[in-house]
Amino acid sequence: MINTADLLQVFQQYRGDAVVIPGRGGKHWTNISDQPNRDLPVGDPAMGGHASFALGVALSLPEERVVLFDSEGDVLMNLGALPTIAEKAPANLYHFMLDNECYATTGGQPVPNAKNIAYEVIAKGSGYPAAYAFDNLEDFTNHIEEILNQPGPVFVALKVDPEIENEPIGSRVRWQTRSRTQVIDDLKQELGVSGP
Amino acid sequence: MTQQQEQEAQLSPEVVLGELLKNGVTHVVWLPDSETNWLYLLMQDEPTLDLIPVSREGQAFSTAAGLTVGGKKPVILIQNTGMMESGDSLRGWGLSLNIPVVMMVGYRGWTRHGVNTDTAATYTERFLNAFGINYYLVENGEDAPRISVAFAEAERTRRPVAVLVGDEYHGFNR
To answer: Complex ipTM, two decimals?
Structure first.
């Protein structure tokens, strides 16, 4: 298992100017990112949608490298997003998936068949040209450059420590410092994107 | 009804495509349905449109949100059944991100005389009303300008707006 904050620290060294959608890694990434105006920490608008959201961002910004930190709960909820990503094949999309084998924000209940799913096989079977799986930081560190140096879409499954939350949602400390719409507006301004 | 009258009473795919192009649509995020199937070949042959097929309608809202972030102008093409399945995605990715997107929704089961045997039609407008989504009914070519009205409203309000396509199989609704 990998510590998510450690993993994101390693990724940060290779981030470059990538647009980053931190997904479930958002609460750590917000303290690590050195280019917050190139981040899209939209939190969790509706579970299962991050992969499709990242696809849309990647297709609309083909000159930008787009990196998503998805989760296995999100991917399971919308496995059908993977064939769509594979068909559209955005060369600028890097799809990392944090797999803590559970629904951490609801108390840590296991996802279906938690320990026996080969997500990288599902991604390859859906048509992703490249897919990896890592369960330790050293292997991830040794491959991150290779992953980001090849054309996307690339899928990377990562076993991470569960960070289980049992506090009622209303009692949890919010890590977001900007509203969702502000996050989007900041990125548009940073990239010079016009439109509503 | 003469053949010419029948043709005039239909919603021509060419007219619909013209409305999409007139409004600057760049991407069509869609899942096939019986009401909008006739657009498919036309859209495929249109070089300025990028078609993004999804396998569950909820994906359409998050995809459209992402496209909008990068300054593109998507339209969502789905059926009412799938729209109802997509409630949380519409709420989270459409409404909470203020995404100005038009969703063209095949109005399966709808009949002009108000008598239907399909609960898909029964709950369509109730669903949209529950979410506070404004909508326009398009039955035939004369109604087509309402599609432009929907695009203008979506941009002005930064909200999803629906166009209900009530022309299943060219006249089934009558």
So the answer is: 0.96
